[in-house]
Write a structure and sequence with these properties.
Layout: H1 2-42, H2 48-64, H3 71-86, H4 91-106, H5 118-131, H6 133-153, H7 162-180
Helix pairs in contact: 1-2, 2-4, 3-4, 3-6, 4-6, 4-7, 6-7
Length: 183
Amino acid sequence: MPTAKFFALRGIKESLINGYAVLGVNEATSLRDELYQLAVSTSRQLESFVLDSLCWVVAVITKRAWIDSSEEQRMAFTRTLCEDITVHNTPCIGLITSTYIIDEIAGGSKCSEFNLPWEFHYMCKASFEKSHLMFLLEAALKVMHQQLQRSLVQQGVSPNGSHTIAYERRSALHVAERVLNWS
């Protein structure tokens, strides 16, 4: 069953890339928001490779709809990611999704093929860098700060849940690394 979910998500990603003109920005962002909420609400029940694929699809939709969305829509989604990263019990979803969004928008070998002109990718990257990148870096740094504070408090206590702390810290480091290596 997890493999079927994985391939279904790959199909959604490819269909969205090829059929975006038919869907339009409103339908695409609605789909993105629903998939993101699905990731947040079912993260503990999904296999890690399915969850990664789901977050990647969210990132691909975000990039494809970036230019067509209003700045208010883009900022609302960035705030949703930042809030999920810093406030909720499962910040990993926001961190995983942010990592994929940064990879998609930064370009290079890790991004999806959209078959769109260079100007589209440049405009996405410039807009994201100008108004959204620092919010994600700040959220990731807050997670690392919280995790380090929690580690200091728990030094005298047995390490239950330390694997969760390490995973979240590592995920936050991935986001910070990608922002700091932004070119």
